[in-house]
Specification:
This protein is an alpha/beta fold and 322 residues long. Helices cover 41% and strands 18% of the residues. It is an enzyme of class 1 (oxidoreductase).
């Protein structure tokens, strides 16, 4: 009898990749974590450091380096590698350089015989997730961009601060692009099961006139607020990614707003967008299609159009392996 071992490969051993690896090890999410990076010594150093924390983790996780050929039996490959952001707010400015990097990664991984799930973090994530799907030839449910998973967590944090309530009691999502054009379907934001808009309307003395556009703007700028102070973001996106990994490996059927291929949902097709989706061992099991107001739907379409325009500028194929 063969006992299957769960294996997660992380491509990119920078701040984000190493933080994801650390979270996986400490939480005991999988049996094996592999780190790959063009800087092999950096990856090796991170692996050695991670091995030294296993003694105090919840279980013994095998941590190692390897090559793209070793991805053949991976359950999940996480792509974090991308072009340096260089202080820019607009993630779309990173498209050309990141597409070359992603192409160089996906081609040899698929040549290894990989047939698991790709989780794409590289920005602009919606465009890169589409590119990975196109390059890999995998079914659409097996390619997932982190999409608006982190943005949604940022929105819940802001609402939690406004209401002085645990952000985990807030239910709501941002949708569309992981970028400036994302939108919030306020008609579906609730706190403890009650509509957020109704809560505000019922208690003007406490909340006053809540600036919804201001909350959206602060949500969009949250990443830059972190970036401008410490030079990178890592903990938030690592937490979101590990949540997605757990939903897949543990077959959770959990709804998380990720970037996935739309095929008629919300009136959109052939574009990766951040939408609520049910995740389990198959990847994207189902897209949650909410009834949006006409204005919310208009904003969602506008965001999808921006992603689609960026997709049109992608190169026809990836590059060579390392």
């Amino acid at each position: 009898m063969t006992v299957n071992r769960s294996k997660v490969v992380i491509v990119g051993a920078g701040n984000v990749g190493s933080t994801i690896a650390f979270n996986l090890v400490i939480a005991g999410v999988c049996d094996e974590v592999m780190l790959l990076d063009v800087n092999a010594e950096k990856a090796r150093g991170e692996v050695l450091d991670l091995r030294h924390c296993v003694e105090y983790a919840s279980r013994n996780i095998r941590v190692k380096t390897g090559s793209y050929a070793d991805c053949s039996d991976a359950d999940i490959v996480v792509i974090t590698a991308s072009a340096p952001r260089g202080g820019t707010i607009d993630r779309l400015e990173m498209l050309g350089a990141t597409a070359k990097i992603v192409g160089d990664i996906v081609t040899p991984i698929m040549a290894s015989g990989f047939n698991g799930h790709f989780i794409v973090i590289s920005n602009p994530v919606d465009v890169m997730a589409y590119y990975v799907w196109r390059l890999s030839g995998l079914p659409k449910n097996q390619v997932i961009g982190t999409g608006t998973a982190l943005d949604s967590a940022r929105l819940k944090t802001l609402i939690g601060e406004l209401m002085n309530i645990d952000p985990r009691s807030v239910q709501g999502y941002t949708m569309g692009e992981h970028g400036d054009s994302q939108m919030i379907p306020w008609s579906h934001v609730t706190v403890g099961g009650k509509s957020f808009l109704e809560i505000v309307a019922d208690d003007r003395a406490r909340f006053g006139e809540v600036d919804l556009e201001g909350l959206l703007s602060r949500t969009v700028r949250s990443g830059f607020e972190v970036l401008s102070r410490k030079g990178n973001t890592q903990f938030g996106i690592a937490g979101a990614t590990v949540g997605i990994i757990k939903a897949i490996l543990f077959d959770e059927n959990r709804m998380i707003p990720v970037s996935t291929l739309l095929d008629g949902e919300y009136g959109e097709s052939d574009v990766f967008c951040g939408v609520p989706a049910i995740l389990n061992r198959t990847g994207v099991k189902e897209i949650g299609e909410f009834h949006l107001t006409p204005e919310e739907l208009r904003r969602f379409h506008a965001s999808a159009d921006i992603i689609r325009q960026a997709i049109a500028s992608l190169p026809p194929e990836g590059g060579a392996s390392l």
